[in-house]
Every structure is written in structure tokens, then in C-alpha cells.
Amino acid sequence: MEYAIALANGDGVPRDEVMAARVFRRAASRGNAIAQNRLARLYATGRGVARNLVEAAAWHLVASGQGLPDTWLDGAVKDLAKTDRARAEQLAAERAGAL
Q: Which residue from 18, 20, 63, 80 puts its CA 20 to 30 A from 5's CA?
């Protein structure tokens, strides 16, 4: 996590948001709520990954389910279409079930 944050911020290492997203994704899929939250923020802003609000919402739901709420992300994904929200909820359920 510290390495991914350093990569995302360029703190002590050259900034590499693509690599940061990869490291966050690996930790997120292993159940790290902070990584899930950071990955959701990257998807919401399109930093290091293609902007994808469905993915942002899905990872945000998983992190929130582990007790890590984020009001900024709540606002970023609040206007998703019903079909997109349903897809995000499905992805979140699958990911949470795999943890």
C-alpha cells in the first residue's frame, strides 16, 4: 500500500499512476479496504486507468462494506443510471464474495 501511494503521488519515486493502479488492484482483490477505496478513486477520476464510474462504484461499495465510507466517492457515483448501478452492485457482490 505504501508503495502504491508513493507511486500515485510521486513521493520518493517517479510518479507512475498506471503502476499504482496495478498495485492497488492487487491489494484490493486481496481484501484491502484502503486499496479498494484508492482504486475506486482512480477509476472515478481516470488517473492511471480509464475513467469508469461502474468500476469506481463497485470498488467503493466493497470498501464501504468493510467499513471504509467515502463521501467524495458517494458524490462521484450518485448519478449512475439504474442499469449501471445494478452492474456495480453485482460486481461488488461478486468481489466481496470472493474475499
A: 80
